[in-house]
Amino acid sequence: MFQAQSRRSAGEALRRTLVAALTVSSLAWATAASAQSAAQRAVDAAKKSCAGKTITIVWEAGLQSLDPLNFSGPKWEQLTGCKVKVVEVPTAEMFTKIMQEYRAGTGAYDALNVVPAWMPDLVQAGALENLDPYVDKNGFRAELQKIAPTYRDNQMMVNGKIYGFPDDGDVFLFYYRKDIFARPDLQKAFKAKYNYDLAPPKTWKQFDEIGSFLTETLKSEGIYGASFFREPPYAMLMFQERFRVEGGRFFDPQSMKATVNSPVGVRVLTEMRNENRFMPPGVEKFGFVENLAVFLDGKSAMTISWPPYGRFAAGYLSEEKALSWVPKSKIAGKVGYALPPGGHPELALGFALSVASSSKQKDLAYLFIQWLNSEEISSQRVQLPYALRDPFRDSHYTNKDYMAKWPDAKDYLAALGQAAQTGLLDLSLIQTDKYDEALRQGISKLWAGGDPKAILDDVAKQWDDTTQRVGVDKQKAVYSAWAAKSGAYPKK
Amino acid sequence: MSQRPGALAGSDGAAVAPPTRRGVRTRGFRLALVAPAIFVLLLVGVFPLVYLIVVSFQNITMTDVDTGFQGLLNYRLLATDGRLWEALLHTLIFIAIALPVELIFGLAMAQLFIERIPGRAVFVALLVLPVLVSPIVAGANWSLMFDNRFGPINQIIGWLAGQETALLWTIRPTLVYPAILVAEIWQWTPFMFLLLLAALSGVDRSQLEAAAIDGASWWRTFRKIVLPAIWPVIAVAVLIRGLDLFRLFDIVWALTRGGPGTMTETISIFTYVKGFQQFETSYTAAVALLIIVLLSAAVFWALKRVELAR
């Protein structure tokens, strides 16, 4: 009996030892796994099935696509054996291409770059894969939480499900000439005229006063108070921001009737046209490049644009071959960065990474976009001088390497970090492009001399017609979900 | 006379011999030879048309999952769509101005170059160059020409006016139609010129010489001899250019994209925007059908006129 008892206690000890050993090794494995980065997890998972395969990804043509062509594509192939084929498509045709391929069911695209405002349309059509199961399977949820709040909370989900990883911190930033604003003669004259200090404007009223003052004073030196891109596709986004900053609402949430033609809208349009008077002649035709050329040439004191303006103005890697088209900056070291008047910049366009629902290799496509979007790889990608991907993760704004890129890079990143807290979403509904198109036409009529009230009445009518065609209740549900997002309207 | 058993009556009542087995085989062989061509024609011509009609009664919007039939809805929308009819009006305005101007300029140039002047071959070759340029490239070039800051047109006007000029050719409502028409007429007048030069070369010289001997004025000779001789060619040239102008797209797109607002939007741009930017596939099918009907009627009428001219 004693022997039997002794054997039992020995067996029990062995069992306990084994359980303890198993527990320790499991914990060690789990610790090691969690310590492993999301990028590495994607690489390890892809290696198992990737060899000899090719992933096709849709990317915006031009500088943007140099990222997968020169950097991320070759690197992914080196790490996993999986080739990356990049289909370059101009922005204006991306939605069409994606939808056409999806409808044709060719499975030609595996991964996609999509503008977040398109997501409701693409999801409703069934073109995007729900990424939640992949995120959980590959342990990416924690890293997704580290995306800057505005992008994470507004540009990732439709109907509570993840359909894309925000991957480009596109936002309108305010750029001004520090040297001009610091001139004692201008400061004195401005204070005498307006009774407040000459500083980056906090409101659009201040912007108008500073802009007209600087043009009056500096035009003889060939400098205008401000210049903006005014071509309708850009000005439409600027209107969306300013309209909301001034208190405007796009729709009545109960009836879904358009309220864009409210007095706020009319005032904003009127002011926008009046501002052209203190901007360079022909500003109505300025696009991204024209406005950039004027600003880098030192011919305007203030402007608003996407983040690359800040890098180009600083002359950051201006010797880069791909950037040879960028005019040489005459204002390096003289540019200050701030939020646009009102403090709620438009998250104009941007890109999210998605998986095509018609892809025949969704797992591989997912692993590629997880790797691209991860902390580790994205921080390298946003520093590529040529690729136009802008910071979008909390860590990007405090990245030591990035801060050392040029003397004012720290201020630049700080301004972007602020914008990532308060940015406003582009309007995103079913058939968004129809609403946008009506606004673009309205802006075009505004520059042609049309009456702001009549223009906005027509825009509102077109919006109401589109809403009727889509279905009031259906659109109302989408609008309510959009309006409930933190970046839809400024907090009162 | 009684008919022989098995014989068939002809149209004149005369007996016709029944087809022999060899004859039937030959006819079958001939049919077999043309059948693939007919099949291809049906496939590429009739099937798309039938499918277009079917789609125009559906609700395909590319982003909408419910694509069922919805009767005449698209046609009702079409009737009340002000933008569509405005686009049609803009197209007709372009045709009404560009077509006669191109014809008159083309004819004048052809008259000039019908004479054996020195360097004629070189000049003709140079004048024809615009036709060889892709319309979208021509539009992009004219966009640069009209640019308010760097374009030579504003600079030339500035020199003439003695002060800096920054006319916004593609934005101001009063300037945008002239800008488009200048580009369009520049590109396609040489086409008219070529056709009419060929037609003028074919006019009977003896008749012209006889008219000259009889002391007929230039205008009378032109009206009574030259114009009737080249009229069929003019009719065809006008028909071709008229149809081309009806589908005017590239130059307008490159210069204004249909703006300001929709002020210069042509029916082709409208169709493109609806079909390929907004994905209103079924509605666009209804618009396409309307265009087919309008164009068919115009072509039918024009061909009858050509026939009458002969």
Q: How would you characterize this protein structure?
A:
- The complex is a heterodimer of chains A (492) and B (310).
- With 492 residues, chain A is mainly alpha-helical.
- Chain A has 22 helices and ten strands.
- Chain A has helices at 2-35, 38-50, 66-80, 91-104, 119-125, 132-137, 141-144, 149-154, 178-181, 184-194, 204-218, 232-245, 263-275, 288-296, 308-313, 362-373, 375-381, 400-403, 409-422, 432-447, 452-470, 472-483, and strands at 54-60, 83-89, 111-114, 157-158, 161-162, 165-166, 173-177, 302-305, 335-338, 352-355.
- In chain A, α12 (232-245) packs across α20 (432-447) and α20 (432-447) packs antiparallel against α21 (452-470).
- Chain A is globular.
- The N and C termini of chain A lie far apart (81 Å).
- The model of chain A is unreliable at 1-7 and 26-34 (pLDDT under 50).
- Chain B is mainly α and 310 residues long.
- Chain B folds into two domains: 16-49; 82-309, MetI-like (MetI-like fold, Orthogonal Bundle), CATH 1.10.3720.10.
- Chain B is built from twelve helices and two strands, in the order ββαααααααααααα.
- Chain B has helices at 21-56, 73-80, 82-114, 120-132, 135-145, 152-161, 173-201, 205-213, 218-246, 250-255, 267-277, 281-309; strands spanning 8-9, 15-16.
- Chain B has a two-stranded antiparallel ribbon.
- The interface between A and B is medium-sized, with 27 and 24 residues.
